[in-house]
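Our working data are protein records whose layout never changes between entries. An example says more than a description, so a record of this kind follows.
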Amino acid sequence: MKKIYTFLLIVIPFLTFNGVFAQSGSFPLSGMPLNPKSSPLFGKDIIINDQPSQNQQNVCVCSAFNGWLYALYTNPNAVQGHPGYKIFKSIDNGITWLLLIDKYSSIAPFITSSDMIVTGNAVSNLKIFLVYVVSGNESTGLGDIYYMRFNAETGDTEDGAYIEGGFDVSVSSDFMQPAINSNPYSVGILYSKYYSLNRDSIIFKSSSNGGINFENRKALAGTTNKFLKVSLAYGRSLSQPNGRYYAAWEEKADYTSNAGHIYTAHTEPYFYSPFTTPVMIDNLDPSTYNNVKNPAIACQYSNIDNDSSNLTEVVLFDKFIPTTSKYEIGGFYNMKSTSTNNFTPFVLNSSTDSKQHASISFNPFDSTFMVTCYDSTTGKLPFFTQNFNMINPDTWQVVHAGYNDNSNLAAPYPKVSLNISERKGMNVWSAEGTGGNGIAMFDAPYSTYTSIPDSKLANDVARISIYPNPCSANATLSFMLDNPGHATIILVNPMGEQMATIADRVFPAGRSRAAIDMSGFAPGIYQVVLTTGNRRVVGKVVKVE
């Protein structure tokens, strides 16, 4: 019994919402290598808020330390023609979403850009940082930039301010691995600032005290053209523990240009230091020069080094192909990003399909970069991963060729982010709804199987039980079927691999049982996936020694 209790002390925090990181100043990012046998699962597309009359745009998602998820979308006509935004919270890994924050702006008719993060390592200090652009011109997106800070448990407003006039804005934080000289962590905001008809700038503002004050302001670059889309990420490794912010942005001749240039720079040597001289990375490859747009940046942040004894930076973009008039996802990576400008070009899984709107995020738990984008040829949203050592940079692992169940897409702008408690990615996008209205959608490779909304078994989650749980060797699955039918029950390990088939036969209507033999498996948290007809229900069983 002593071994069982010891294991439960380790496992149970992962199953609760006030979990394992509550008292820690940083997260235990081990940097596990990518498991090539890993086969993550995607489930049913989940509508975050089923309101067909709303035009749900600018969808994004983020995770708190304890597994609470937060999703944001904007609505152009929230109140009497004024734009609004809504933030939702999920405590069941994205299956159900509850409205937490509902605001609108009377400044201008459009919210053209937005971004959001959640910080903190205990429920008592969870904060939501939201940044957005309110514009009077939807075609150019030029407007006023604002930031808001909310209590992430209650949704109460704690702070808010006008930043400056500009086009686009991005926010990031080091709360999982705090930078040197931050207390308790830092927050960074990057934006493209509009000065006049012939002068734009890229501006970075940071807070060293968890977003209480943004006391540091740096100008990265200026142009007589247009600085438009921006992207911000945090980077750190074992040999580079200072922590730095990495920026990427686009420059175009004017607002209507189809493509332009992509630049990148980073703070050096600390998160609040001046930025390095910007590098026009598309200038490093003739096929990309002045043919790129929509930058997306991610950096390694963990307690290990890459194979170059440094940290990896990846910048993605939409790359225009003049010969076919299509786009593909191109990029550059730098494995010595703190000390060199040694950027190497690559194309993400080249094909004849047209792909745009890449989103990238780093997973410090298995040291991989996660990417999603919009394949407009197939109407699909693929999901890719790549080890941080970029051994085969042109060939990324295809986790799923298209996780969206329906191809009702026009401008989905998918986003990928890390679910900290599940240690895997998650995705949101905007599907095409009634009258061209967007629908905010959610799905994740760790599976979001649910019988809601079209299943007759709306209470399936409550009607499936496993006992004893935890178990040391054998458990019994009990479940209810409304009608007789064929059911398949499988056991899936924490890496998403199918370990055993528990049952594959016809069951009668009513309550049935199936034996689960766990004696040959290592301790851990396993999923029991029951499939009957077009319904899937997932339960969890904990194996202990």
Notes: The CA atoms of residues 245 and 406 lie 37 Å apart. The first helix runs from residue 2 to 15. The chain is about 5% helix and 50% strand. The longest strand covers residues 157-173.
